[in-house]
Amino acid sequence: MKAASFTDAPVAGGTEDDRTDRRVELTLGALASAILLLIAGMVIFVLLKGMPSFTHNGLAWFGAGGSVDEQLMNIFNSPSDPDDYVYHLRAWPLLYGTALITGVAVAFSTVFSVLASIFVVEFAPRRLRQVIEPVVRLLAAVPSVIYGLIGILVVVPWVATHLISESSKESVAYVIQLDGTSILVGIFILVIMICPIMIAIIVDALRAVPDKWVHGAAALGVNRWRAMRTVSLRAVRPAVVAATVLATARALGEAIMLSMVAGSVGFAPNPLDGLTFFLEPARPLASTIVDNAEGLSVEPFGQTMYAFAAILLISSAFFSFAGWAARRSYSRYTVGDR
Amino acid sequence: MTATRKPRAHRSAWSVGDRIGLGLAWAAGLALCVAAVTIVGYMAWKGIQYLHLEMITSSPEASMDQSQSGGFLDPIIGTFLLTLIAILIAIPVGVGIAVWLTEYGRPSGLARAVESGIEIVAGTPSIVLAIFGLLVFQQAFMGLFSFTAEGGAVFGRSFITAGVMMSVVALPMVIGSTREALNSIPRHVREASYALGKDRASTIRRVLLPSARSGIATGATLGMGRVAGDTAIVVILLGASMTITPEGGFMGLLRGTGSTLTSYVYNNSPAGEGNAPEKAYAAAFVLLLIVILLNFVVGLIARRSEPKWS
Amino acid sequence: MELKTALNGASTDGTSPNGVPPLRRIVVGAETPPLQVGGVAPQDLFDQEEPAIDDTPVWVEESMRTEDLSIAYGGKVAVNRVSLEVNAGEVLALIGPSGCGKTTLLRSLNRLVELTPAARRTGRILLDDQDVDEFDATILRSRVGMLFQQPNPFPMSIFDNVAYGLRERGSKRPRRKELEPVVVDALERAGLWDEVSSNLNHPALALSGGQQQRLCIARALAVSPEVLLLDEPCSALDPISTATIEETIVGLRDEVAIVIVTHNMQQAQRVADRVAFMYLGDMVECGPATRVFNTPQAERTAEYIGGGFG
């Protein structure tokens, strides 16, 4: 959005000013294009670096088969001759862990954020509202490592002592140790991390719903909850979509906090385990890279890590772009007053 | 003939479903408050409990009993240094891009692409930025920015390399705030400047940018907050040495490795190699204070800059 | 239906009270000759000192009244001790210059004024002899409907708009089959049916301004209110839409008590049976329309009507 159209900006003075202005425009334009270069560079270099991992495994790269941690260990211990590099990898547990944690966290956060936003805009007592809003903004700014710290020092031990019973441990002991780091804690803290951003977006959108509709619904004898649900929520649907998509991009990239609380095992939690399912650890792609950061310079291990990064990059780029497109489409959605 | 009056079928205006909905909204709102208070309060409590003055003033020491020895002065310095480097790069670049988008922006296809590009960069996980940075700065021709080990392998990890990638993290915020500030300057200001015979470039420099100062400051502060809180880039690109190890003067400092509060907290938690949770709490508390302070400053800037245009 | 034929001026059951005037048609550049009112051509009507027929409605039933109602915003008094009756079977017009409190008074009748945080109200408002504070504001508003200055149909289809009030109350959501006859009836009474009957799923926002306002009338009528409050409903519309809506309003007065706020005195003369003149928050004069306009009792009223101020 431009404040004024500049195709008609006069260039007063002689040709010297002309050239200066032109030079400035080109320089700044080059700077702006650098962003695109950066993205292109990232995609190209990361993909190129990680390509060997994909080519050696083919589509089975995305499949399941064996313990991912073992496979990573083997890759790390490859002989130093490039011809003998080991690339074998079945990344499914990591992909599954990423999708599971991200998906559940975003789903729950969307519902929670919508409800909390309705509360903040419509039902919260005025003084409570004045306190909540700055606090929400603060929560959005808290570094993820602090969430991770509280998670690992407080929540994980609590889960270990209170939620994990001997019997549940035994039921899966042959596959995995339950020590409290789990997808439950990971999802819980991830929800706390992404809600503030979503709430901020949705609250802004709810406040932007034209008064005439809100008053019109009230004048018809519809109670505040119904009016909010049927008129306001309908109107802010695009904003909710945009917030959800942004939250997904954020959740996908969360490496540090999840590496601290969701477990350091590349394990695929098994829904057939019933409730114990939630107590099982997992490790999403981003955390895998962080946990294995020391090995980045070791081929072919590094290449495998870059392959993970490539997946992350492409999926988060997709979601970020979708969020931007969604926001553009609803910022044009202003009902014209007749 | 009387007006038709239908009997009122409902006693209350709220059905069961409505009440449930209302209850859920209240529950969510209160849960939000509780979570917020708990997190901040717990951090404050633990932090005050474990924070001693000497922690801020003394450097980390390598010793067997981590809980008794040393402080985290170096990580604090590291945080400030890294944030400074990042913002010094992000401000000129960010303002330049913002100016191009608002004041020039031709061809418009390129402008839209750049806008979506900014969003993509903003959404890129910092871990990906980190290992991309590593990839770039480990190339031989980037040897200037970090130390080179014997044998020729460029280390790729230093304050400079981490700072450059951190500036990418801060960039979208600077661009966003600056654009907002520039867009809110009304058209007649620009027209007045042109009427006085100034061309576009000098209008921007002399008239528009000074007015957008508070927007730029807001964006920079927000960016600083994000930089100060990022861990992944630090872990990958700063070398994770406990103390700052410069090698010769200021340039050596920049090319050297170190740590920041975030990596310090990470390393001292059970997830890292340390087992000094007290220090982790103390450092986390200091980090939280810094972030709160930065947010407070943003609020101050926003309140002080009242719209001057009638 | 009994109501429709009543609108057309004929009585079906033979028990219509004497003197109920047939529908007054508003003559705005019409090509057909003006309708005769009680055997007297309109222009002759206005030449006389007194109306040829007694056109005060014969049956009147009190619907709402206020007792010493005062409303203040912050420290400023907007409505000062007003006592007023609103009767079914007649149209009451509130007239007065801008800022005299007529809109505030109107909005207090359905307690919509409570949505403004700074408003304070003293005095009583009674609906059917019941204090409105004693029951839920939401229920009150389903018995006292309102139309706004700017037509405000929801961003939904025509059908969904009209059915909205019926759907969103109570726990059982009525089925479309049950709603259809009510929607059709409401659209007919609002004078919109002929224009939209072809497609009720058309988006409401695609209608013209006058159609939207009539849609809002239909929407308000669908919940069968006892009173209808109209806040300058025609001020945003062109003359032809205005004429249609005025026609509709007059036609509705047998079913609902109508209060219309208007700053257009000619409009008040056209549609009102009783007129209340307000000035700076005080109710200066209230009485039958013909009396207030032709022989106002207060000097202020005469000044306003004569165009001395506005």
Task: Provide keyphrases for this structure.
heterotrimer, A: mainly alpha, 13 helices, disordered N terminus, disordered C terminus, C: 310 residues, alpha/beta, four-stranded antiparallel β-sheet
Task: Walk me through this protein's architecture.
The complex is a heterotrimer of chains A (338), B (310) and C (310). Chain A has 338 residues and is mainly alpha-helical. Chain A is built from 13 helices and no strands. Chain A is flat. The two termini of chain A are 24 Å apart. Chain B contains 13 helices and no strands. Chain C is an alpha/beta fold. Chain C has a 6-stranded mixed β-sheet with strand order 6-7-8-3-9-10, sandwiched between helices. A 4-stranded antiparallel β-sheet of chain C has the order 2-1-4-5, with helices on one face. In chain C, β1 and β2 form a beta hairpin. The N terminus of chain C is likely disordered. At the A-B interface, α1, α3, α4, α5 and α7 of A face α1, α3, α4, α5 and α6 of B.
Beta-strand content of chain B:
under 5%
Helix-strand string of chain C = HHEEEHEEHEHHHHEHEHEEHH
Strand tally of chain B: 0
| Oligomer kind | heterotrimer
From the spread of the alpha carbons, the general shape of chain B counts as: globular
Q: Kindly, what is the distance between the CA atoms of the first and last residues of chain B, rounded to a whole number of angstroms?
A: 59 Å
Structural class of chain B: mainly alpha
Spatial extent as radius of gyration of chain C: 19 Å
Distance between the first and last residues' Cα of chain C? 43 Å
Instruction: Label the overall shape of chain C.
Output: globular
Write the H/E string of chain B, N to C.
HHHHHHHHHHHHH
Beta-strand residue fraction of chain C: 15-25%
Sheet with the most strands, sense and barrel status of chain C: 6 strands, mixed
Count of DSSP helices of chain C? Answer: 12
Low-confidence stretches of chain B: 1-10
Biggest sheet of chain B, open or closed, and with what strands and sense?
Answer: none
| Poorly predicted runs of chain C | 1-32, 48-54
Tally of alpha and pi helices of chain B: 13
The whole-number mean of residue pLDDT values of chain B reads: 81
Number of strands of chain C: 10
